């Protein structure tokens, strides 16, 4: 298990300027199969001297340059890293210049000469200085460069850059010749003293000069070599502008170039171990091979994406389990009324949804249709609220997996009402040639109900609420109509001088929007209940009616039956009075205060068709404590439904009499 070095290791050759420098490895232990990852960090030793690009440097400085002026010097390079890399510079002693050591963003050092005392050409034409570069090793390694400075006559104006620092970014795969940045400087002098030449500063590293090119005339900085984000992410480039004077003036600027990573490295797959051959009885889960994947790119470009294949394990899910849709009747055919929405978290075909309308009811298939792709439900025909109010259906949402999964969604469509039906008159029937005449006796007091207009509206709710108004009458002061009941009452007591025949036109209106209406014509005769009505009906009968003899015999039969009924009722009444008086005497003689429950009453109906309205009858009440009968006559008030049923069943109005008699029970001994 010992890890040995098989050959000489050169950190600078393996990693260059990268720090730390590490070599990764994996160890496989078999039986049981286990994988261990490790790394060997290559530590740097100070085995390289700093190196200057050249052994000598020459500068021309005008005697007019003011103190504080800076002059960049070429930088030394040291391939070692960390403390063993270049750490500082030293300048030989002199009365005019000092050395200022600066640090770049990548940690490397560079030096600049700073003029502390102004130069005088008449006093000294040239200066000789020695610049020493030192690393941080123990003992330190060094390099030297001879600096020769010529003191020249003054040049009034030096070039000036429009900004001291430029910033740019380029992709690492940018082709050669691509413009990175353009620097610009100006010089106020005329002639050659104002002409500017751009160049790299003396301390620009050689590597930068290999990757970038600078146009000396235009100041355009372009890509020259192949950039590599994995090698260097940021370049700090120092440039200068120099005029063409006898003693050229110089200005300096800095360009920061950021290298943007691109996905230019394919993942590298390494098979660490292969367990082969595999026994046929190998248990499920046995490791066959170990794979490792690396990518030299950074951030998202360096991730390896492992694709997980989808299994159709999720059924479609609707945003809601049921939908309630409200549609106005008389709709335009073909309109969309609903969009059934569903989702499936699976991928690809497993998430492709289709919508189907389950047709348990054949009617639904003729009225509704659904788009298979997007779930839009369409109404194919116009609906009628009066025909059907509600439709129920089931929509199936199915995915495209194998096998497919499905979800059912219930949909209820409610047809809302429009006011598209006017009131329909049931009584008096509007579509018949027969004339129905309601009869009221002379002297009838005010408030007596004569008859009732019965109507229905096929609409629903407020649209079916019918109101009744008196539109036209022979005598408007004689009759009134109930606004919501349709009942016709006498507005005052009938007088002898009132007309014998009255025709009323009743206006029926619903409360829909727009309002729909109908009218009903009611004929009322003022006559005695039996005699005069018979006379009137005989008078209005057509002379040439072949059934007039049959009608006469029918009327005669009704009269005879009525007379027999009257005699029978009179006999029963006398008998009841006799029994009542007898029980009264027994009660008084026994001095008992026991209250006797009234005995069963007799309810006898007689219908006389064709003479009077079906809602007219008499009630006679006999009480145990009265010495004489209390006779009262009351109109019959029925519900609209009852009136409708009665009218539809009988066809013609008739006379209805009811006499109710009550008497006390006989004593217990009589029972």
TrEMBL record:
GO terms under cellular component: plasma membrane
Membrane protein topology class? Single-pass type I membrane protein
Task: Supply one GO molecular-function term.
Answer: calcium ion binding
Cross-referenced Pfam families: Cadherin, Cadherin_2, Cadherin_C_2
Coiled-coil regions, chain positions: none
Does the record carry Electron transport as a key word?
A: no
Q: SUPFAM superfamilies per the record?
A: Cadherin-like
Q: Where is this region: Disordered?
A: 633-671
Q: Where does the record place Polar residues bias?
A: 636-649
Q: Where in the cell is it found?
A: Cell membrane
Q: Which SMART domains match?
A: CA
Keywords from the UniProt entry: Calcium, Cell adhesion, Cell membrane, Glycoprotein, Membrane, Repeat, Signal, Transmembrane, Transmembrane helix
Q: Which residues form the Cadherin domain?
A: 53-161, 162-269, 319-425, 432-544
* Segments crossing the lipid bilayer: 552-575
Q: Which Gene Ontology terms describe the biological processes this protein takes part in? A: homophilic cell adhesion via plasma membrane adhesion molecules
Name of the molecule in the record: PCDGK protein
Give the species: Ceyx cyanopectus (Indigo-banded kingfisher)
Question: What gene name is listed for this protein?
Answer: Pcdhgc3
């Amino acid at each position: 298990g010992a890890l040995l070095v098989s050959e000489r290791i050169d950190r600078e050759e393996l990693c260059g300027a990268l720090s730390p420098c590490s070599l990764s490895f994996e160890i496989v232990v078999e039986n049981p199969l286990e994988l261990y990852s490790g790394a060997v960090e290559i530590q740097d030793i100070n085995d390289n001297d700093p190196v200057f690009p050249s052994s000598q440097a020459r500068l021309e400085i005008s005697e007019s340059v003011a103190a504080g002026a800076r002059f960049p010097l070429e930088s030394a390079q040291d391939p070692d890293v960390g403390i063993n890399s270049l750490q500082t510079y030293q300048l030989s002693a002199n009365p005019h210049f000092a050395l200022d050591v600066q640090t770049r963003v990548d940690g490397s050092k560079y030096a600049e000469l700073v003029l502390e005392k102004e130069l005088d050409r008449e006093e000294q034409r040239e200066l000789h200085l020695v610049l020493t570069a030192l690393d941080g090793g123990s003992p330190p390694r060094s390099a030297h460069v001879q600096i020769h400075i010529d003191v020249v006559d003054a040049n009034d104006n030096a070039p000036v850059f429009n900004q001291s620092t430029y910033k740019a970014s380029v992709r690492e795969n940018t082709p050669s010749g691509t413009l990175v940045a353009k620097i610009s400087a100006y010089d106020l002098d005329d002639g050659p003293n104002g002409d500017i030449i751009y160049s790299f500063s003396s301390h620009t590293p050689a590597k930068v000069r290999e990757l970038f090119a600078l146009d000396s005339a235009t100041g355009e900085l372009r890509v020259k070599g192949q950039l590599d984000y994995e090698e260097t992410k940021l370049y700090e480039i120092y440039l200068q502008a120099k005029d063409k004077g006898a003693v050229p003036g110089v200005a300096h600027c800095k360009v920061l170039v950021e290298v943007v990573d691109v996905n230019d490295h394919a993942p590298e797959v390494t098979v660490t171990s292969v367990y082969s051959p595999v026994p046929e009885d190998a248990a499920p889960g046995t490791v066959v091979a170990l794979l490792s994947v690396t990518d030299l790119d950074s951030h998202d470009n360096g991730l390896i994406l492992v694709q997980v294949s989808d299994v159709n394990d999720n059924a479609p899910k609707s945003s809601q389990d049921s939908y309630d849709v409200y549609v106005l009747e008389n709709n335009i055919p073909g309109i969309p009324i609903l969009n059934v929405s569903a989702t499936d978290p699976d991928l690809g075909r497993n998430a492709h949804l289709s919508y189907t309308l389950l047709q348990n009811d054949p009617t639904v298939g003729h009225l509704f249709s659904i788009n298979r792709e997007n779930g839009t439900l369409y109404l194919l025909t116009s609906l009628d609220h009066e025909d059907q109010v509600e439709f129920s259906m089931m929509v199936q949402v199915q995915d495209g997996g194998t096998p497919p999964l499905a979800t059912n969604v219930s949909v209820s469509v409610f047809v809302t009402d429009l006011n598209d039906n006017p009131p329909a008159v049931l009584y008096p029937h509007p579509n018949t040639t027969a004339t129905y005449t309601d009869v009221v006796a002379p002297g009838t007091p005010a408030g007596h109900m004569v008859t009732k207009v019965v109507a229905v509206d096929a609409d629903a709710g407020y649209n079916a609420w019918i109101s009744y108004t008196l539109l036209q009458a022979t005598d408007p002061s004689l009759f009134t109509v109930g606004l919501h009941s349709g009942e016709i009452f006498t507005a005052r007591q009938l007088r002898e001088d009132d007309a014998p025949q009255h025709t009323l036109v009743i206006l029926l209106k619903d409360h829909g929007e727009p309002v729909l209406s109908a009218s009903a014509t009611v004929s009322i005769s003022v006559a005695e209940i039996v005699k005069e009505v018979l006379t009137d009906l005989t008078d209005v009968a057509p002379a040439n009616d072949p059934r007039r003899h049959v009608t006469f015999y029918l009327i005669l039969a009704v009269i005879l039956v009525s007379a027999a009924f009257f005699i029978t009722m009179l006999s029963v009444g006398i008998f009841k009075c006799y029994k009542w008086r007898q029980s009264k005497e027994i009660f008084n003689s026994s001095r008992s205060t026991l209250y006797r429950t009234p005995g069963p009453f007799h309810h006898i109906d007689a219908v006389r068709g064709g003479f009077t309205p079906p809602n007219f009858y008499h009630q006679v009440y006999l009480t145990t404590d009265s010495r004489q009968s209390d006779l009262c006559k009351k109109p019959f008030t029925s519900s609209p439904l009852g009136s409708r049923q009665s009218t539809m069943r009988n066809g013609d109005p008739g006379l209805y009499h009811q006499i109710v008699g009550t008497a006390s029970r006989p004593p217990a001994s009589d029972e």
